Amino acid sequence: MAKKFMYINRKAPYGTIYALESLEVVLIGAAFDQDVSLAFIGDGVYQLTKGQNTKGIGQKSFSPVYMALGDYDVNKIYVEKESLEERGLTLDDLQHLVWEDEDEDYAEKDSIRLVSRSELSDVLDDQDVVLSF
Amino acid sequence: MTMLHTVNKSPFESKAFDTCLGLAKSGSTILLIEDGVYAATTGNSVADKIKNTSDINFCVLGADAQARGIEAKLAEGIKVVDYEGFVDLVAEHDTVQAWL
Description:
The complex is a heterodimer of chains A (133) and B (100).
Chain A: E1 4-9, H1 18-31, E2 35-40, H2 63-68, E3 76-80, H3 81-86, E4 98-101, E5 107-110, E6 112-115, H4 117-125, E7 129-132
Parallel strand pairs in A: 1-2, 1-7, 2-3, 3-6
Antiparallel strand pairs in A: 4-5
Chain B: E1 3-7, H1 16-23, E2 29-32, H2 47-51, E3 57-61, H3 62-67, E4 79-81, H4 83-92, E5 95-99
Parallel strand pairs in B: 1-2, 1-5, 2-3, 3-4
């Protein structure tokens, strides 16, 4: 029986290693056919901004990896509304992440679910395993 | 005496930026680097603090802003510098204080 795994991302990318390490673990979890959800709260929402160009800081950008999550059946990506607002961001500032639903002739669907803090609280309550980054 | 302050932490995660702003003298420079660059974006709960401080020069390390995809959201009046500009700032000021 697949367990419900939630990965909580609370750190901005590049300044610390947390964001990249979380992605690595998420992909491992997905390979074991678990029911994976991702939550982006606090500075974690910065991980999903579009237009990241790391050429100048000499680090590899892992921004394109978020686009591939749909192919690993990771398609429940919760972004907390309050965290976006506090940072002056909207959904338009984030990458447009999609997945293909094979039950509906591979229709492209949005992976990002914009949720309020209280909605996220309910999602969190429903998990079997929670991992924090 | 002029001082160059560097802040490398996000203003939402740490008090470093607030502490720096509280202690920085008129005429000094605050250079935002690494996750510190988020303080220089518009429309957030920190933006007003920079807007209401006219006697301090605010700079941002361009490479760090580009890496985070926030270059287009930088507030007006904030100077973008490259690594050479960072070195120039260090040379131009008497002392450097890094708010780690």
